[in-house]
């Protein structure tokens, strides 16, 4: 299974690496000039009947016990590719916006979907001893 996903839709770029550091996943989300980075404790992976859904909170506001803001997620395609091969992929990205419960009109949740395209690849880690050997 690939460990690195580089996805794009217009100005939106998502880079997700499940093996960036031992035991730590990282996700980078870029929308135009705005870049947000997340590590394992900020990334949620949920198993669904459609496959794993990886999500992060792009913004979160706590107000009197209420939580609202925007989250982004995407489905990780299930691929069985050789470790040396990069696969082209297409998947769905989903935005969830939770509005302020005191806002008018009272729309508490709304969803928006985008199509993400890019690549999936196996991350190859070479020990320093091997990389520096003549």
Strand percentage: over 45%
Low-pLDDT runs: none
- The number of domains: 1
Distance N to C terminus = 31 Å
In N-to-C order, the SSE pattern is: EEEEEEEEEH
Largest sheet, strands/sense/barrel: 9 strands, antiparallel
> Over all CA atoms, what is the radius of gyration?
17 Å
Structural class: mainly beta
DSSP helical segment count: 1
Oligomer type:
single chain
- State mean pLDDT (0 to 100 scale): 83
Fold-level CATH name = Lipocalin
Structure commentary:
The protein is mostly beta strands. The chain has one domain: Lipocalin. Helices cover 4% and strands 62% of the residues. The protein has one helix at 128-132, and strands at residues 4-9, 12-21, 24-31, 34-39, 44-48, 51-63, 66-75, 87-98, 109-121. The chain has a nine-stranded antiparallel beta sheet, with no helix packed on it. A hairpin with a 2-residue loop joins β6 and β7. It is elongated, with a radius of gyration of 17 Å. The model has no long low-confidence stretch (mean pLDDT 83).
